[in-house]
Amino acid sequence: MLVLVAAKIRERRMAEPAFFALESTKPLHFLGSQALAFFMPFVEMAAGPGRAKNFAKILENRLAADRLAVLLENGGKGADNGKS
């Protein structure tokens, strides 16, 4: 899912702003995942149950932000050569 998100961001040529936003809000990611858990019923109606839960898991995982940052920096090819 992170590879897909990174590809969509790069497709829109927003990799640099997304990278800086991601890095500057790192301390708030866990707080955001908790807020998302609170609003999960509403988010599931809009995005679907599977996507909402996957997004919440990504926000809870502190390494996911680092992985997305690497994908944005390297044009979609992370430390593991794009496998994930």
Summarize the structure.
This protein has 84 residues and is mainly α. The chain contains 6 helices and no strands.
What's the helix and strand layout?
Layout: H1 2-11, H2 15-24, H3 29-38, H4 40-47, H5 49-60, H6 62-73
Helix pairs in contact: 1-6, 2-6, 3-5, 4-5
Describe the protein:
The chain is an all-alpha fold. The chain is built from 6 helices and no strands.
Low-confidence stretches: none
How many domains? 1
Supply Rg.
Answer: 13 Å
From the spread of the alpha carbons, the general shape counts as globular
Share of β-strand residues: under 5%
Main sheet: strands, sense, barrel: none
Helix content: over 70%
Oligomer status: single chain
First-to-last CA distance: 8 Å
Decide which structural class fits the backbone.
mainly alpha
Strands, count = 0
Helical run tally: 6
**Residue-averaged pLDDT:** 81
> What series of H and E elements makes up the topology?
HHHHHH
